[in-house]
Amino acid sequence: MTSDQQNGKSPFLPRSPMDNEENKNNTNKFRRTNINLLCSFNFNRFHYCVLLCWLFGIFFATQMIFSVFSNYIPKWKCLLNNTSNFARNCTIYQQCPENLIQFEENIPFHSAAMEFGWICGANAYNRALFREITPVS
Length: 137
Fold this sequence. Notes:
By secondary structure, the chain is mainly alpha-helical.
């Protein structure tokens, strides 16, 4: 049973202007309660705007971190040349046999570029393509 039926009012009959005022007051009370509930922590529009910007920043920053770490390639040297300098020289990488290439020590992780051999040559373009696609996913 609705409140109108308890008061003896038919839901099918037109309401009086006084009833409309009651509904407006009840609606305003409900709105004020919700607003007070939302503002119980003294939040205002500025706080919501900052929160939204912060969430967008975190979302896009985490999307970009994956592409940065997936394309990391440390410096290397060829053991045939007897040099102690590590560099990112593609001619040395392509001329040196694969088992004689030494990467810098203390590599924190092996990236996708190292795993798939996207270091130099025609395969290096795959690394750029992968970097463009991964932030979207």
